[in-house]
Sequence to fold (558 residues):
Amino acid sequence: MDQRWAQDVLRCHICDTPGPLMYCDICHIHLCKACVGEHLSDQSKEHKVLPFEKRGSTPKCLKHSSNISVLYCKHCNIHLCVTCASSGKHQGHKLIEIMKNIDIKKDAIHKDLQELEKNIFPQYQEIASIYISQKSDLTENSQKLTAAIDKQGEELHREIDILIQKLKSDLSEMDSKQLALIIKQEDEIALTISEITQCIADLKTLLDSSDVNRVSVYKSRNAKFRRLPPKLSICFPHFTPQKINKEQLHQQLGSLSALSTKTEEHGCIIDSPDVELTSVEGPLINVPPIITDINTEYGEFKLRNVTCLDDEQIWTCGDENIMRLYNLQGELVQTIKTKSGNNPWAMAVTRSGDLVYADYHDKTVNIVKKKKIMPLIRLKGWRPLGVCSTASDDLLVVMVSNDNKQSKVVRYSGSTEKQRIQDDDKGQHLYSCGGLLNTKYISENRNLDICVSDFYARAIVVVNQAGKFRFNYIGLPSTTKGLFSPRGITTDSYSRILAADSSYDNECIHILDENGHFLRYIHNCQLHTPWGLCVDTKDNLFMAECYTGKVKKLQYYM
Fold:
C-alpha cells in the first residue's frame, strides 16, 4: 500500500484538510483545530472534541445516541445519560458516576492481572512441571519392572515364556493407561495456561485501553482459574517374584499390582489476597430481581429440575420423559427423550458438558454423548434419586434401596464405585427412607462438602468429602413459616448453600453459609412452588417453579 495514500485518508470533515488532529467523540468526525469552533457552534446536540489519540473515551448513551453517558446503573449494567436517569425506569437502582465506575473496573482489572501473573499462573506452571517428572518416573519404574520380569523369566525357561509375555503385555497396557492419564492432565493444564496467558494479554490491553464501553463490561474470569485442577497421584505397579514351583507355575511367577491412580485436590482454591471478606460474602439483596423468566413446555405441576449447561443455556426435566435445553431467550434448543421412556428423576452436567440423568424405575444413571444415550451406572437392589457432578469430575449419586429401608450416597468415577456414605460414626443412618416421598437432591459444595436435600427427613444433611457428618439444617423455628419442605439444592462459589422450600406456607429459598448458619430467605420476589435449583459461573440463581412450569433467573447478591 502507498504510505502517502494511507496518511492522506484522514481529512477534516469540514474543510478537507489532511491529517486532522482533533476528533468529536459524539459525532464521530475528524476535525482540524481551525474548524473546532465552527463544529461546536452547532448547538442542536452535544459535542465532545478531543485530541485524535484520545478518541473513544466518551461513551454515548445507547438509547439516546446524541447524549453523553454520565452515569452507570449497577443493577442493569449499562451507561445512562441524564435523560435516561430522570426517566424513572432506574428508580431504586444504584447509580454511580461513570468515571468512578471506570476507576473501579480498572482497579479490578489491575488486581486480576496481578493475581494471574504473581499467584495463579506460577502455580499452574508448577503443576505442569510435576507431570513432566511423573512421565520420567513412569519410564524409570517401567524399566525396573521389565528387568525384574526378564530375570525371573530366564530362570523359568521355555515353559513360562507365554506367562512372561503376558506380564509384559499387562505392564505395557498399564503404562499406556497411566501415560494417557498424565498426558490428558498435562494437556488440560497446558490449555488452561494458554487461556490464562491470553487473559493476561487481554487484561493488559484493557488497562491501556481508553474504550469505556469495553472496560465497563469487563467481567473477571479469575474465579474460574482459582479452582485448581485435581492433582493426579500415581501409585506405580510393582513386580513380586516368587520361588519357582512348576506345579504352581502361574501363581509362583509373580504378578503386577493393580493399576492405581488417585486424584487429589490442590486445596481446591487459590487464596486471593486482594478480596475482602465483606465482598466475598455478599451483600445479599433484599428483593432479588428476576433477570430472566423462561416459559417451558412442562405446564403446571410438572417441572422438577434445572441445571446449567453453561452461562447461556439450561437443561430442564420433570414429569415427562423428555429433557429440554433452553437458551436464556426462552428458545427451545434441543430435546432428548429418555432411553427407557421413563421420566428422568434427576439430572446434572459433567465438567466436559455431557448431560447425565437418573432413571429411578430403570435403576440406571445414563450419560448423553453426541445425542446418544448410554447407560453409565446400573444399580442392583437400589434406585437413583439424585445425581451431581463434582469438581474432580466424579458423580455423586444419592439412592434408595428397593425395599425403601435404606438410603446412601455413592461416589463414582465413570462407572466404578469409589466411596459409599450411609451411616455416621455412631452407626446411625444419615439419610431417611420414605418410599415415593423419599425425594432427595444432592450438590457438592465449593469446600467439597456433600449436601443432600432430604424431603422425608425435612432436613439438609451435610457431610465432608470423607463422608463424616458435619451438620443438619431443619429450617428456622418460626410461627410465621410452615414445615420445612426441602426440594432442590445448589451451592455457589462462596460455599453458600441454597435450598428450595416448596411447602405452600413457605414457598421460599433458604440461604445458609458453609457451616449451616442461616443467612436469609429469598421469598419476596413472586416465587411459586420453587423446586429445582442451580447456579451459573457468575452465581446467578436459576429456579424451576413446579406450579407455573417456569424457570426464573435471579440475582440474589451484589
Notes: The first strand starts at residue 22 and ends at 24.
